[in-house]
Amino acid sequence: MIYKSYKGTDTKLSLLGMGCMRLPTIGDPGAPVDFDKAVEIIDYAYNHGVNYFDTAYIYHSGDSERFIGKALSKYPRDTWYLATKMPGFALKTREDVERIFNDQLEKCGVEYFDFYLCHGMNELMYDTFTNPEIGVIPYLVKMKEEGKIKRLGFSAHAKPETLEKFIAQTDWDFAQIQLNYFDWDYQDAKGQYEVLTKHGIPVVVMEPCRGGRLADLCEESNAILKETTPDRSIASWAFRWLQSLDNVQVVLSGMSNMEQVMENVATFEEYNKLSDDELAALDKAVAAFLKKFTVPCTACRYCSECPRELDIPRILAAYNDIKITDNDFQRGGTVKKLLAADNTDPRECVNCGTCTRHCPQNIDTPQIMDDFSKIIAAIPKEFRE
Fold first, then answer.
1. Taking a C-beta distance cutoff of 8 angstroms, is the pair 270, 236 a contact?
2. What is the pTM of this model?
3. Between 20 and 30 A from 263 (CA), which of 281, 309, 356, 369?
4. Which residues of the chain form CATH 3.20.20.100?
5. Does residue 31 register a pLDDT over 70?
């Protein structure tokens, strides 16, 4: 297992971390966790060098924290690092913050968290986390002073400029962002990574395979990668790409079966960064993937004469985001952010065809609006509302 020193200290974190959002379950995905199957995964990961375990208040409807605390309790407390998060959407008062934090300690069966995060900071949640009346950050800083939090950070799906503002709130120890070879340009993960690196904040990576989407791109893209390295999985490209980024501290993988954990552990046994030829092949594969799955909207706004005054380019951009991920939590976040703006609900389309007649790219926008509406309906409400 590859280990990296945390900020030059004696703390050595495994480069591969265990994400506990996609554990095997009994019945439908979400909850409850299938304890016997999940504990086999944790045991294998721990016994093969993984020492960083990441959960959250909302994962598996609250069952994830209970599970991971129990699963790790048989191992010496100083041999593993536990991370969990404060859910901004659930906070209305100072009492909520204290209640949730104490509930998490009890559920996990620990006296302190090694790593603790403000969960999902973005342009919509910024005000909640910085609201002085709710007092999230001051309370968590106090918990750190009392030793109940060893290292304080935040997870974010935010623009670089929003990260800059949030970093100024306190002395953060680390940050967690969505980082992978696809989003490096597509969602400016590069800009986010550079902001954090500039401030000396170590990066924990979430969604290295974009919720599993980068484990199986499309037939053409897969063929390009397989021709280059026939003996490696498609998913391994995402992990090896991240090994080239010096400020990456931990790469989280939401491993949900033994095959995944065994393969990922093998990938992280030693550094095996992508070669120049492999990087060139990856660029070709991403271009083929984008061409197949995304709508070629250039935001020219020739479609702006919509009788419903819909912001069609913005809706199509969100639709593209939806189409290139299989993760309902991520899809729900995209929908929530989209519908928070004005004139951005695809369900309001009346199928008049005005947009299509004016589109230089010949995009069948009414059909996309219909498809988008069906996708929204299929996303669990707890993720999109």
1. no
2. 0.83
3. 281
4. 3-281
5. no
